[in-house]
Amino acid sequence: MMFSSKKKLPEVERVVKANDRDYNEKFQYADNRIHTSKYNVLTFLPINLFEQFQRVANAYFLFLLILQLIPEISSLTWFTTIVPLVLVISMTAVKDATDDYFRHRSDNQVNNRQSEVLINSKLQNEKWMNVKVGDIIKLENNQFVAADLLLLSSSEPHGLCYVETAELDGETNLKVRQALPVTSELGADISSLAKFDGPDTKLMQNSGKTKFKRTSIDRLMNTLVLWIFGFLVCLGIILAIGNSIWESKVGDQFRTFLFWREGEKSSLFSGFLTFWSYVIILNTLVPISLYVSVEVIRLGHSYFINWDRKMYYAAKAMPAEARTTTLNEELGQIEYIFSDKTGTLTQNIMTFKKCSINGRVYAGEVLDDPGQKKEITKKKEATDVPGKSQSERVLHFSDHSLMEAIELGDPKVHEFLRLLALCHTVMSEEDGAGQLVYQVQSPDEGALVTAARNFGFVFKSRTPETITVEELGIPVTYQLLAFLDFNNIRKRMSVIVRNPEGQIKLYSKGADTILFEKLHPSNKDLLSLTSDHLSEFAGEGLRTLAIAYRVLDDKYFKVWQEMLEDANAATTERDERISGLYEEIERDLMLLGATAVEDKLQEGVIETVTSLSLANIKIWILTGDKQETAINIGYACNVLTDAMEAVFVITGNTALEVRQELRKAKENLFGQNTSFSNGHVLNESKQQLELDSGAEEAVTGEYALVINGHSLAHALESDVENDLLELACMCKAVVCCRVTPLQKAQVVELVKKHRNAVTLAIGDGANDVSMIKSAHIGIGISGQEGLQAVLASDYALAQFRYLQRLLLVHGRWSYYRMCKFLCYFFYKNFAFTLVHFWFAFFCGFSAQTVYDQWFITLFNIVYTSLPVLAMGIFDQDVSDQNSMDYPQLYEPGQLNLLFNKRIFFICVAHGIYTSLALFFIPYGSFYNVAGEDGQHIADYQSFAVTMATSLVIVVSVQIALDTSYWTVINHVFIWGSVATYFSILLAMHSNGVFRIFPHQFPFVGNAWHSLSQKFVWLVVLLITVASVMPVVAFRFLKMYLYPSLSDQIRRWQKAQRKERPIRSRRPQTRRSSSRRSGYAFAHQEGYGELITSGKNMRAKNPAPTAGLEKMLYNNTSWIENLCKKTTDMVSGFSHDKTAKL
Amino acid sequence: MHIALLDLLFLLIVDYVSFRFLFAPRNCLLNFFLLQIDYTGTEPSSPCNKCLSPNVTSCVCTINFTLEQSFEGNVFMYYGLSNFYQNHRRYVKSRDDSQLNGDPSALLNPSKECEPYRRNEDKPIAPCGAIANSMFNDTLELFLVANESDPTPVQIPLKRKGIAWWTDKNVKFRNPPGKESLEEKFKDTIKPVNWHKPVFMLDPDEDNNGFINEDFIVWMRTAALPTFRKLYRLIERRNDLHPTLPAGQYYLNITYSILFLWLCAHIEFKRLSLSYVSYVTYYPVHSFDGRKRMILSTISWMGGKNPFLGIAYITIGSISFLLGVVLLVINHKYRNSSNTADITI
């Protein structure tokens, strides 16, 4: 057998002999083992080190280390750099090793799954990793497939098999695959031939490397680090020049006591060496610990997210999960949320809520009684995958008046329910326990059929020609005469059946707007009544359908049927003729009533959306659903509100139309302000971009934009793009319907590119993957069947409503903490390092350090790292409850107010000021001074100890001032750091250590001597007060005179700490609107054909062999049709005319 | 609120400290005195001017001064140098602490840090390095010109010991171990090139000779800033009745010792040869605009006189006071405004 493939570029075709391993081995196809791990035990060290030193920061520190080994330059001993570097590298290595260990484990799990392979004409159990290309594999129901396979045959009729591809694309509906006719008769459960293995499979080929996401703080940090390097080089140059001058002016005279070294006898060369020496000394401006600390803090925040009980979904035992640990603070800066609808905002559970039959509304209570009734709305499943049998709550609708009407035998009511039981594409099946299970293709239909079943009209089974319904206990078989399938233009579906009495009836359900046009004039009164009911239903956010029937005359039908057969056989204009015939028969309908199905929102969606929009976050809904459904849901979850001044609907089919519609909407928005927007296309776009920032503020009132998939395709073209963006960004809410996955990503990219705003995408399905990947932050809703969205996401939440807490609490805190951390970190290191700069002017620019070498080594990693980490991890300005209650607190993050270049300069200035105080106060005090025992204490070592002590105390006091939320850990770390400093200081200056290493610890006795001097303590106190006081005063004044919202809430929080009432601040507002119907029909075309062809039904009696060929022929044709139609739908360019609202 | 309290606490300390600092000299209880004499001799009128030019024989100069007030309690005698970069990196690290700690191997094989003062004439230098090499070697003596009746000047007894830190003298600096004489211990070494006598001849007192000579130890504790003073001698209080230094006429005798001076150009191949020494001089500072001073001082409870710290405390103290008042007022004014109603969004 020969199989060709175009998957791999260099590989044009694959030659495989089935079940012939020896032959296939010649081609050296990849084996089926999956490798996602990076290292093994031997390669770990070299590869990991190589990777680590590719990072600029690490390479830089390695470079510094090499510089330090040159004695002429070395101003610091080698250990000052190597200790932190080794620490950092080993921490990263441990983290990488752990990650890789888990990858190894998951690889092993996948590789060791069992499969049945035909080897030596015997079925043998084989691990999937050992499956070779060309093997014949026997699969059973509900087994995992871990390779690309070619279906040879199956136990289903006509070699069909149903595949779930949730792990590939997240779609949980079953895909139909058919075996080649030649092989389909082989029998056995399912046999298939391995086609591509291991790394060659579609999945591995498509799983492109995920883009490495960086936060805006990251980017800012990198810029700042570059600036600091620039600053460092400037300082180095200044000091090098100073050194040259000093050496030629002063040093030259000082030769008596200070020799030249050999080979550095010119002041210029000395200056050059000094430059490098100072680069080494001043490198602590950007300490290596910065990046590590940032990572640690983010990791901490990720754990907070993972551990948050308020984001734990008990029903599915599903906690929130931070899958990426590097993006947390970005969660505090979100401006745009792009949300999927189905499964994210809604539960994808349809519930039959209300109906209007013959002008009377039946609206029952919805009871939750799981398991009491037999009805189980099993959606989208035929195979019973064990992991999937979720125990859904059965929403049972009961209305006594309806029950009575049924019992009384009201013919209209019976007809209504009969219609629901007959007119659908649902398949029935009996499960193992003999219970009736429906396989539904759209959840709406499932809801309707189940509702009919609850009221005694049970859809039992169907064959291509018949439908069996149990009507109030009596089985009735209807003959299915015609199936008028649904499509997007028709927006309705009908069946024509002959009942046992011989009467032919057409049952139709569809969008009210369409169906009402088809009604018989006698329905006028009922129509207006039903229409009112529909409005009422729609007002409650329900999805509605109108229901009608028509009694057909036998003769009339026969004529029509013949015409239909003709049309079917026609080669030209087949579709047009058929749809014309459908139109012909679907008229003069008698209205029965209407149904209202609730597309259940996820819990807490309304509150979350309201709260997020109060936080000034714009929510865009991107959905594959139809416009009506999307708008409906938009209203239901408060993204669209009646308070909005206008909702612009863009449905144009050409670029020109779309542009005009966009312009018109914009004109509406601005009033007469935008007379410019009707002019020339080319000159305009620039002008508009300049204007739009100003214009955005000029717009008052809330607007919303609804745009259709096909219009979006045009709107995303480069010249219309700006119009769209401008309009969309001025609107408070945007709903994009009927968008393809690619368009979702394009919309996100558009906003990302032009808005400089932080975007978040949230979705649950595979169609959201591209959007999740391209947004700054992608969130996957976990707990659904498809894993793809979660796998691509940065955060996984079980429910949409947790987004509120994730953003408003965790995101905000993360951002707040990260900003405070960075601020403090830069401050600390400037204060620490710049002292060397000032000292340079008094030591002949000789690159003499101010501090002990050990102090320089330990300052960043031991003495001051933990308190700032504790602040970075635990600090909070207001409590989580208040963060949720005051969504406005979120705004500083969006505006980047807490850490930006301005704030950075303030921090740096603060650091410089502190370094000045740190140097010049001891300088003044030590000038010509004697100790209390008369001995001189103005020696270099005492000076160094005094300054180091002052520095540690000043930065500790500063962190204490910065910490606004004190936990035990903060206390322990801050006090502990100071204590550690003193104990290490005393230990290193002790006699014992000196005796062992006289070279490394020359400060013997110094700590004790200096610290016992009152004078030294007076200097320390003075420095502390001088450097902290201005900050305290400034903050105090700011807090009282210009308090920010967070300051106010914090003060209020302090005052209220004892008696905080539990308030619910936001009363739920239920929408009452007079909007017109939200018709919905989550339907796909083509299933009607599948049903009437009967190919998906198990034949009770084997079909006669003669018919087989014909059937096979038909069979392929409908599959082709189906494929064609599906691709049309997905591509989103099907030019169906979606009616305007 | 607590900020204001802290502020007040700080103010109390400030008041106390600044009072002590500024008014201490006039406070009889504290007896705080300070006297400085510059003997650099660059001015032609100075008696020490004659010793600036090289002179093979030793040179002595005498400076007269008057004490207006008696110095009571222990008096400390310092020498001060300015513009002397003892904190220069190349200078600071040019020593071998192991050698100074009496490590026999380091004695014969000093650390590379000592280059180029590491070896001379194929012998290790002890003590090696630039710091030791440039040791201050002027000898200062103090005489009281007694009253008219008795014209013989009285030499003030100056104590040579007790001027170094305890840890330096007992832990950090040690002579090489062994029972032989000091001269024997240093026999394989050579004196630093600038010195005119070897390290084992610094003091006749065995306990103050070699590496543990206190003058040497004090010198080896390098100064933080280019202008510094180092403790030279102690003048101990005799008893309560007599002031340590009664008011009156004094003179200071400075005896210059010779210093072999060589120029940098003369180091070749990291070696030094005495044949390249060009001239001999006394401890020179004028070449780099340095000054030499002799300082007599008493000390208070927290050390010597320190006007900077006093002024700094007063300045910062008054600023804190002002701020404290302002913050208290503001705090009082806004204290009651912390309730929900005031949260303006």
TrEMBL record, chain B:
Gene Ontology cellular component terms for the protein in this record: apical plasma membrane; endoplasmic reticulum; Golgi apparatus; transport vesicle membrane
Alphabetical UniProt keywords: Cell membrane, Cytoplasmic vesicle, Disulfide bond, Glycoprotein, Golgi apparatus, Lipid transport, Membrane, Signal, Transmembrane, Transmembrane helix, Transport
Regions crossing the membrane: 308-330
Residues spanning the signal sequence: 1-19
Record bears the keyword Signal: yes
A single GO BP: phospholipid translocation
Primary site of residence: membrane
Topology of this chain in the membrane: Multi-pass membrane protein
Subcellular location: Apical cell membrane; Cytoplasmic vesicle, Secretory vesicle membrane; Golgi apparatus; Membrane
Family matches, as InterPro entries: CDC50/LEM3_fam
Keyword Cell membrane tagged: yes
Similarity comment: family membership: Belongs to the CDC50/LEM3 family.
Name of this chain's protein: Cell cycle control protein
Organism annotation: Myodes glareolus (Bank vole)
